[in-house]
Amino acid sequence: MSLNKVILIGNVGKDPDVRYFDSGAAIASFPLATSERGYTLANGTVIPERTEWHNIVVRRDLVSFVEKWVKKGSGLYVEGKIRTRNYDDQNGIKRYVTEIHADRIEFYNNGSRPADSSTTQASTNTGNNMTQPVQPNTGYQQGGTTLQSPTAPFSESNEADDLPF
Amino acid sequence: MSLNKVILIGNVGKDPDVRYFDSGAAIASFPLATSERGYTLANGTVIPERTEWHNIVVRRDLVSFVEKWVKKGSGLYVEGKIRTRNYDDQNGIKRYVTEIHADRIEFYNNGSRPADSSTTQASTNTGNNMTQPVQPNTGYQQGGTTLQSPTAPFSESNEADDLPF
Amino acid sequence: MSLNKVILIGNVGKDPDVRYFDSGAAIASFPLATSERGYTLANGTVIPERTEWHNIVVRRDLVSFVEKWVKKGSGLYVEGKIRTRNYDDQNGIKRYVTEIHADRIEFYNNGSRPADSSTTQASTNTGNNMTQPVQPNTGYQQGGTTLQSPTAPFSESNEADDLPF
Amino acid sequence: MSLNKVILIGNVGKDPDVRYFDSGAAIASFPLATSERGYTLANGTVIPERTEWHNIVVRRDLVSFVEKWVKKGSGLYVEGKIRTRNYDDQNGIKRYVTEIHADRIEFYNNGSRPADSSTTQASTNTGNNMTQPVQPNTGYQQGGTTLQSPTAPFSESNEADDLPF
DNA sequence: TTTT
DNA sequence: TTTT
């Protein structure tokens, strides 16, 4: 009986870092900022704006989407789960990093049109013989039965799960 | 083992309808629109934009917040649950209406400042000796106006925010 | 700027109804119950348990998963969006039905093992040369680039969107 | 334009740590485990069960609820937001800790009755002249103990539930 | 450190 | 390091 669900809307702090492995697996990562606006209490205390930075990690078929479309400054909707991994730093001390493993990423309109969870899947599932827009109509999500093709066996994606980042 | 959770971001279709009852109870309701943007398929088929209208229902202490701040056109973040009620129409036929009973409402910036789930509760808890902004800094959720009582001033809660634990 | 997101955990009220169309499109639907438990107020008033029924609608690649695994009584985690459609009843009166269009379905352990959003996608993305378990390890979700195969063109899935159920 | 939302269902790893400050502020914290079940890939690779530990932090009026009811082993539903804070360790090196600041906590039935987001608020708002159950009927959320004031008894809010609007 |  |  368990659920681990994260929903974020925020802005990308810098261009994604994308890495490919010999196994064929790939991983992308980038920082995403969410902000709480500041306010003033009744007693005059000023609570300043506060920005939270999230480490977004992307695997499998989401990687190519991120590599192609996500840039510094992009406004994104991200769904995923929390994962904390640990590693030993240069002093042999165990350190922890918490990341958001994304299952779904959508562009969250920078001023223009609305986005919706439904549209996303639809317009995503294209990208073939269609002329690509300068910005994607929508987003992307993990999943899909056909990922298990011989050229991208599922086990690889999961081996990547054990990589130290 | 049950969960019934709805998260919406959209725009208010018309000014809320607010009703008060002899019992002291109050209820507010208004339509909220969420939109999926349209797109064009690879084969040229045009899928038009689609707007979904949700009946938002508000009770208890959220009512006064809605009455005061929510207007036609307001951009809102709404959390709640789905409820379908039925009634007999003029022909004695049972009819069903599905509504979203809101547990939490926040203003979702119309172009200006960001909002965050945390800020909301804070700046909501106003209504005392504080000069009211023209638009609320934030939103509201079920429960909690009385946090800003003299015995538990809000600033204290926030001082705790800086404690190393 | 829009979001329409529903998260439900509940039990299936009866075996899914599955329909196939000449276009190749398919649709499955079933009722899902979520329950609020009853309680007694301080003044002695008894608030009884309340069950909410949701109309779950499933399309595309989720259909075969549902047809194969989902049964009356199944405990499910469902993510999706709200959609209200209308039709004219036998008296020519416009009637409305609100449905949850599922983007993701997972089995939510009936007493046994925990489920998690991540696991789900993983164990789902198999189903090839693997011997099938009596009950799936997990669930399923919409998406996947390769859905747009010639035998299941995307436009068909969307034509189904206009069907009266 | 920002959202930072976490939804967890899991089990408490040890009894909460509760601290009170001179200011009157209080804070509670405890670890919560979510688990992904293991599975076997088509190629025979065994992916073991994986447990994720979350640091839950609770403030304000949620603290007393946690102190009273939450124990090691408790099955909880937790809603909140992600926050990462940093501090300098004994070697003067900056370290980071990511925590989930809870806005809402509910008991998630250990085998028995269902829970629902609505019920929660209701049965929570007790703590007056009512005999307390051994385990709370439900959960709690930020804000709102004072709803059960004489001028706004909870039963009234619920009578409104039956009004045709 | 929890649960199944 | 992003956005407003």
What is the topological layout?
The structure is a homotetramer of 165-residue chains.
Chain A: E1 3-12, E2 17-20, E3 26-36, E4 39-40, E5 46-47, E6 50-59, H1 61-69, E7 75-88, E8 94-107, H2 117-124, E9 140-141, H3 154-159
Parallel strand pairs in A: 6-8
Antiparallel strand pairs in A: 1-3, 1-7, 2-3, 3-6, 4-5, 7-8, 8-9
The first copy, chain A, binds two DNA strands through strand 1 and strand 3.
Can you describe what's shown?
Four copies of one chain form a homotetramer. Helix content of chain A is 14%, strand content 42%. By secondary structure, chain A is mainly β. Chain A has a single domain (6-37, 48-152), classed as OB fold (Dihydrolipoamide Acetyltransferase, E2P) (Beta Barrel). In chain A, the strands form two sheets. Chain A has a five-stranded mixed beta barrel with strand order 1-3-6-8-7. In chain A, 49% of the residues are buried. The model of chain A is unreliable at 111-133 and 144-165 (pLDDT under 50). Chains B and D meet through strand 1, strand 3, strand 7, helix 2 and helix 3 of B and strand 1, strand 3, strand 7, helix 2 and helix 3 of D. Strand 1 (3-12) of chain B pairs antiparallel with strand 1 of chain C, so a sheet runs across the interface. The structure holds two DNA strands.
